[in-house]
Write a structure and sequence with these properties.
Number of domains: 2
Largest sheet: 12 strands, parallel
Strand order of the largest sheet: 1-2-5-8-11-14-17-21-25-28-31-34
Structural class: mainly beta
CATH architecture of the largest domain: 3 Solenoid
CATH topology of the largest domain: Pectate Lyase C-like
CATH class of the largest domain: Mainly Beta
């Protein structure tokens, strides 16, 4: 049906594709319910630090527009600059919100003293708190992490929504584990996770040690609808994967994200087939910078038994020899299907994944604006259009639109190209744009 419509309106053309999915499209959240939460309004940095320190269950901190400089605060713990959510070693608290008041993260900016200054080690450090929402604000310029999820103290079920998380000296978001496998059911969505100018050589370490999101032992994390950019090292060395789920992590879902200008992309596991189990990487855009002055590695990497890599769009620009790598003989049951790439799928060290229905010679001209990471399909990307049967586990596309259910009607890659059903004048009976060509 879609091909028929294209022929009938060919002289009108096809409407421009949507912009790449981005944090700016985050649906607004409802305000915290005063029937559920005690609302704490703050409009100074000192009030914010005190409110975080004094949080109890069922509270919501609402932050007025402004810039909140953590380096200028006398912190309640008497040590250094961090916003503490659930005090270290204290009784657990639950059901918490920390929100920018306007819904626009540009209006509430929380900042430290810079990536190389230890006076502000963290933005938020979550210890003995569960069921926490942090939303609609910006955090950056800190020594270690913008958000640290300390599962060794019980932190779990954390949601980061519509945040700008930038410029941390090490990992931007970090999940640590304790005696349990790690933080469970963490959701990071509609966030921009970025380094403005790459990662520094960290003063504590003497080398660059960075990721956008790094979870040790994370269970059932969902990372979706984010923009991840600039995860590389200023000294040109190889940065860590932009998203690294490892050391006992399991069942991660990474979907509908855009990754641009990074050294590496998503890694399920790193050093062995026991590093991660299961998981899905689907409907993401990856675009590597052909002018990169830093070391570049593979966009998608898995050592995880039972993981599936479905319908991603990947442009390496020849900077690395593979778009996907599956490593170690223990990485059994891996599937790599329906991906649109300009490089191969590479098994390593005895891995034997199912590899099917992929394109490995994608042309950058097939995409709307590959220079910005917008890998929506152009109408003339014929080799990728209407090629596949539906794949189990990937019924929608990068924009959340449903893929066709018919055999042979599904596009390769993250975007399902859909032309308009009606053009201006069509419904009025105007036939001037029609062609006389009759479809065969």
């Amino acid at each position: 049906m879609r091909r028929l419509i294209t022929v009938l309106v060919v002289s009108v053309g096809v409407a421009a594709a949507a912009d790449a999915r981005s944090p700016s499209e985050a649906p607004p959240l409802l305000p915290p319910d005063p029937g559920v939460f005690t609302i704490v309004d703050v409009d100074t940095t000192q009030e914010l630090a005190d409110a975080c320190w004094n949080l109890t269950s069922n509270q919501a901190i609402v932050i007025a527009p402004g810039t909140y400089d953590l380096a200028d605060v006398v912190f309640p713990n008497g040590v250094d600059g961090r916003l503490t959510v659930g005090r270290y070693g204290a009784a657990p608290i639950a059901n918490l919100q920390i929100r920018g008041a306007t819904g626009d993260p540009a209006d509430v900016v929380i900042r430290g003293a810079g990536m190389a200054d230890p006076i502000v080690p963290f933005g938020f450090q979550i210890f003995t708190a569960t069921d926490v929402l942090i939303a609609d604000l910006s955090i950056g310029s800190v020594y270690y992490h913008t958000v640290a999820i300390q599962n060794d103290q019980g932190a779990t079920r954390i949601r980061l929504y519509n945040c700008r998380l930038q410029d941390a000296g090490e990992q931007i978001v970090k999940g640590n584990r304790g005696s349990n496998p790690g933080a469970e059911d963490v959701v990071i969505e509609y966030c921009e996770v970025a380094l403005t100018d790459g990662a520094i050589v960290h003063p504590d370490l003497g080398y660059c040690y960075t990721n956008a999101i790094d979870a040790i032992g994370g269970q059932r994390w969902t990372i979706r609808d984010n923009l991840v950019r600039g995860i590389f090292c200023q000294d040109g060395s190889l940065a860590g994967p932009a998203v690294l789920m490892w050391q006992g992590s399991a069942d991660t879902v990474v979907e509908r994200n855009t990754f641009v200008d990074c050294s590496r992309g998503v890694a399920f596991g790193l050093v062995s087939s026991q590093d991660h189990n299961g998981g899905v990487i689907r409907n993401n855009f990856f675009r590597w910078n052909p002018g990169a002055a830093y070391v570049v590695d593979v966009p998608i990497y898995t050592t995880s038994p039972g993981s599936v890599i479905l319908h991603n769009s990947v442009l390496t620009h020849g900077l690395y020899g593979a778009a996907v790598e599956v490593r170690f003989a223990g990485a059994t049951g891996v599937e790599v299907r329906g991906n649109l790439m300009d490089a191969i799928v590479r098994p390593r060290d005895g891995a034997a994944p199912l590899v099917a229905d992929n394109i490995t010679d994608a042309d950058p001209a097939w995409f709307v604006d590959e220079t910005t990471g917008n890998l929506h399909l152009q109408p003339d990307a014929a080799p990728a259009i209407d090629q596949l049967d539906p794949l189990p586990g990937c019924s929608d596309d990068f924009d959340g639109a449903q893929r066709p259910a018919a055999s042979g009607a599904v596009d390769v890659g993250a975007d399902e190209l859909e032309g308009p059903l009606l053009e201006d004048g069509f419904e009025s009976g105007d036939t001037s744009a029609w062609t006389a060509t009759v479809p065969g």
